[in-house]
Amino acid sequence: MLPFFEQDHLLLRARAREWVEKKLFPSLERSSAGDRRAIRLAKELGSEGFLKYTVPQDFGGLRSKIQARDLCILREELARGDALADTMFAMQALGGYPIVLAGNETQKQQFLPAIARGDCIAAFAITEPDAGSDVTSLQTSALRRGKEFCLGGTKRFISNAGIANSYVVFASTEPEKKGTGITAFVLEGDTPGLLVKERTELLSTHPMGVVEFENCVVSEDSRLGAEGQGLAIAFATLDLLRCTVGAAAVGLAQRALEEAIRYSQTRRQFGRPIAEFQATKFKLAEMATELEAAKLLVYQAAWVTDCGGVEVKQQTSMAKYYATEAAQRIVDQALQIHGGSGLVAGSIMERLYRDVRALRIYEGTTEIQKLIIARRLLNKA
Description:
- The chain is of the alpha+beta class.
- The chain has helices spanning about 5-25, 35-45, 70-80, 85-100, 105-115, 230-265, 280-305, 310-340, 350-355, 365-380, and strands at about 120-125, 140-145, 150-160, 165-170, 180-190, 195-200, 210-220, 225, 270, 270-275.
- It folds into 3 domains: about 1-120, Butyryl-Coa Dehydrogenase, subunit A, domain 1, CATH 1.10.540; about 125-230, Butyryl-CoA Dehydrogenase, subunit A, domain 2; about 230-380, Butyryl-CoA Dehydrogenase, subunit A, domain 3 (Up-down Bundle), CATH 1.20.140.10.
- It is about 50% helix and about 15% strand.
- α3 packs across α6 (about 230-265).
């Protein structure tokens, strides 16, 4: 992995791994849901300095520019310990990066330092009941009224809904223009008319809900960038974060492999550890090889992203597609090695099995990643 990393990246990994194994591994509390726990994790990630990697140096960060490699390292290590810790870290990056990209100085000073400390929980509101993969069809509107905008509409599957202090919201200011008529806004969580209508319980622990905008009037100072730039801001944010989803998958798969190895060496059947059976050895070999391939794709994509390579979109899509699908297979094989013990509610394998599934869907499904890859290949040809 050394070709893709500098020495400071390796030091960051070592520090993150030590923290995760000390703070997250011993606790079984991670299997339970709870807003207070999510907020506490964000504050702990802030106090430990990990959230500083989600904002630039001028606003409380550690580097002049946010690096995909930093984000991947941290997401991989956090996911290995606790999927909710990974979620809270990822959402600070996802909800903060549009402000980094397009916010004015006042917006950046208001939100970014607090995001880096974990004092401001961030949200990214783009998905709607009828606008998922096809984001250009979103129906949430932002009608101009002089120097104000009136937002109306519904957002669905919004991470941190109900606990977020800031929401980056994408709405149509010119519906007839479809994608080129979408504008981004940043709103405080207590903005009048911003209503959390429903909390959505998912397969895996994850703060999620439905947000509605009912006569939600905001000043034009809440706009991020110019009118019509919203989709470009959203795509640029997702381009940076895409390979980090693969990194989270790598972390979950790494933990699953570790648990499978440990269990296979202690579980005895027919008078010997099941690790001695060829069927188990084949499973472990396949899991380790797929994991290594996933790591290489993710790290290469992160490196290309940081270096500004011309094939960023293709490489990040390949990394997200392969790593999340491979992680699903690795976790499934690890649970098979555990047998019935892996099905027990509250066990590590039961948690990993639930945690890994969403990665193949959010921030661009596997099918969308395949379309991106194929489109790039055909365009080059």
